[in-house]
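Appendix C reproduces, verbatim, an entry submitted by the partner laboratory led by Prof. M.T., so that reviewers can inspect both the input and the predicted structure.
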Amino acid sequence: MDQNTEEKIAELKSDYVRISQDLEKLDSVGGNTENAEKQLAMIEEEISKLRKQG
């Protein structure tokens, strides 16, 4: 796996953690979690694609 791909995966993981935390906060106050859930799914797909390429 090249350096650029590893950096992109690390960035996506960081985004995933941040959005997961936001999702937990939204859920705890009864907020709409649909958008955050979609973002997490998209990040999971992107990480999977990058790993397959690497």
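DSSP finds two helices and no strands in the chain. Additional entries are available on request from the coordinating office.
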